[in-house]
Amino acid sequence: MLSEAFLQSLRTLRLNAPRRRIGTLTGERRSMKRGRSVEFADYRNYTPGDDPRRVDWNIYARLERPYIKLFEDEEDLTTHILLDDSPSMFWQPEDGPDAGHLAQKWMCAAQLAVVLGYITLASGDKIVLETSSFQRFGPKRGVASAAALIAFVERVSATDKRNLRSPNPGGRPSLNAWLKRYALDARPGLCILISDMLDEGGYAEGFNALGNSRLDVNLLHTLSPDELDPQFTGDLRLKDVETTHLQDMSLDDAVINQYRQRLVAWSEEIAANVRRRGGRYHLTDTSLSLEEIVLKDLRRAEWLI
Amino acid sequence: MNLLNPLAFLFALLAVPIVLLYLLRLQRREQSVSSTLLWRQVTMDREANMLWQRLRRNLLLFLQLATLAFFIFALARPYVNLPGAVSGRSIVLLDASASMQATDVKPSRFEAARAHVRNAINSLGVNDRMTLIVVDGAPRALSTLTGDKSQLFDALESARPSLDAADWSAAIALAVATGAGNDDTTTLVVSDGANADDLRLLTGKARFIPIGSSGDNIAISTLTLRRTVRGLSAFVRVTNHGARDDRVLVSLRADGALVDARTLDVPAGKSAEWTIGNINPNVTHVYAEIDEAKHNALDLDDVAHAINATNTTRRALLLTRGNRFLEQALATLPGLRVTRAVTAPLGVQNYDLYVLDSMTMPLPAQANALLIGAQSVFTTSEVFSNTAYVRTESHPIARNVDWRNVNVLDARRVNAPDWLRPVIESQGGPLVLAGESPDEALQRVVVIPFDLRRSDLPLQIAFPILIANSVEWLAPAQGLNVPLSVKPGEVMPMPENTRVTLPSGEEVIAGRRGFAQTNQVGVYAFDTGRAQGAFAVNFNNTSESRIAPNPDLQVGNADATSAQPAAVPTSQREFWHWLAVLALILLIVEWWIYQQGVPTFQRKA
């Protein structure tokens, strides 16, 4: 799925987690708790019962009052990668050049999930990866789990491709339902949602549930070129691959332009929602190469450091 | 508005298959998309202008139905009743006389008349019929009682103005023969009214459309040449047929080279003369032309041509024992060199003319001979003395010859062949005979079967005229007895197969009845094989040069002019062709919109 050289280049990268979440093991991430690491955090007044070893004697000599020196407590980070594998992620134009192969859009999303998971594992952090069809990987820690991660994603790809041939719209959970259910037993940490967000029920409730579970929601919004800039015109009956809903449209340049404007407004609305919750939003054109997305776009957007 | 073919609306049923085909064509192609979420929002955004969207979507259907509607409407042949020039049965007399070529109405009177007739044809209703008669020197019907407008238009376009005067009597006879005078027939006269007084003889309903606005015209009415001792002299007369005085510039050219030009003041209704002398006598063709005039609407009469035949010399042999009168009469004729002999010359020498005065000699083949008194060419039977004048036949040699005072003591009765006809007859027998021989021995012969000395003819004024006429007929100046100047349309007596070069340069072979294509003004050259020469066709038509229009002309039994129409006729005017054009335009627009690609079902490249 990924070349060895590309994986090597990922070892130097870290996920940028602006907000600190408590973990259970000592990790390489700063915790919200003040602790015993070497990185100074703050002072506070000494109170009886405090460990006398943590009194800053230099301050006491100058001020003649005891202050306790506080340090950042470094803890591990749990990265939750939520990969949307709804049928819309597998959609591609029927008469497009890649017809018959796995959709470019899904391939891009799956590879991004692997890349972000690999970076997490290489950082010594804990990873949990779950798809919207409730297939879960992890929690796992350590680079040794990278191969299992890749195998998991490949298995999901194969399974979903089979399932696409017999779509069952009623049996799939909505985006909100999936996120709410995931938030029930998720530990606090960094949450990266990789999805096209094309869901009839919206996303707000799911985002709320994740936020309540102290998960920082970051959204990698993956859209294919045919969704960003549709290339079909004429009198068409559009069929939703998820809901099988039919929509009659007479497409001409004016309608396509209106669609583009609608798409921009919609994506900006999602981005604003995510940022309001302290998360990050990045819109990804899935026709771009993985290297360009990861090494250039995500670094520039400070997703990776 | 009414319909001639309302059953055509049954074709409206064709709209059903069009709508069905359109609905079938609107079967949309299914296209899977990742989600219709955004597309539905787009649809909602467009709800505001949904009506236009629907209209636009169905634009092609509307255009197709509109095209069908226009076609059906056209097939139903709608018409409206409009006032027209004529209705019912009509006969149009289109004046094509020479005066109709005047340009006081632009581009010309004839074209203006043609435009009026065109309007009349256009205004013909469905059941209207028209006969189109063009009136010139020989009126003829170009189309007879037809409602076929294309045929009438073709006939109208084929009409050409002539150089003749209009023969209105013949035109009226022709119109009556085609129905003029009947109650249901209207005669429409389109003319300038000049020289058309005969039109009052027209019977039945008639309307007159006057053409022309001015009678201003300057013409060269005369151009003659005369041989003088100092060369050639030309006489030009310029006539002002209009009502305004004018000053005209006239030029005279000889064989194409300008000889002289003169400005002449020509009062209204008067003429001005100009004599030009000292012209090289060897020129063959002289013409005068009006180069500049202020009030001159007709170009035809602005030029006159004259052929100089005074420089040709004819040779005559006079065999006589002495006849002073005859010798003097021959000697005064211009261009005739007379050789007098008392006996027949020994050598064989061809003369243009042999004059045998009571003497005889063997004549060569194709000889022209004037035989006076006793002769041996034709046998004579008796001598008669009852020579009282009876009559003169129409013949060139008898032109202007007054025989009434001529006394002849006695004459011989000639046993003349059939071709030798009496020209002047007396009670006892012919006194002058002339004819053209069909055999090779002789060509033209004039016989005066009495001795001049036994009559007082040489003392009469008729004598030099008769001799001059006879010489001119027997040995014409150009070797062929044709007039030097004729009017357009006249038939020139010419031998069969004579090659004639028209003024336009075209070469024509004369037929058995002579040469008749004298419908161009100018100089015609001819070549009979034995003789070459030229003649001129000059307009020279005083009546047609008087081009003053007569808008108040009485046509028929009532003053029915266009200014006071008795009753405005109405005609059924169809307009289906405009509907057909509209339908065609709609069809093209529909095709263009379809090509511009509202419904393309393929992905863009």
Strand order in the sheet with the most strands of chain A: 5-4-3-6-7-10
Largest sheet composition of chain A? 6 strands, mixed
| Beta fraction of chain B | 25-35%
Number of domains of chain B: 4
Number of helices of chain B: 11
Q: How large is the radius of gyration of chain A?
A: 23 Å
By helix and strand content of chain B, what is the structural category?
alpha/beta
Shape of chain B: elongated
User: What would the CATH topology of the largest domain in chain B be?
Assistant: Rossmann fold
What is the level-2 CATH architecture name of the largest domain in chain A? 3-Layer(aba) Sandwich
Average residue pLDDT of chain B: 84
Q: pLDDT average of chain A, as an integer?
A: 79
- Overall 3D shape of chain A: elongated
Helix share, percent of chain A: 25-40%
Unreliable sequence segments of chain A: 22-28
Give the N-terminus to C-terminus distance of chain A in angstroms. Answer: 23 Å
What name is given to the CATH topology of the largest domain in chain A?
Answer: Rossmann fold
- Spell out the CATH superfamily of the largest domain in chain B: Class I glutamine amidotransferase (GATase) domain
- In terms of quaternary structure, the protein is heterodimer
Tally of individual helices of chain A:
9
Number of β-strand runs of chain A: 10
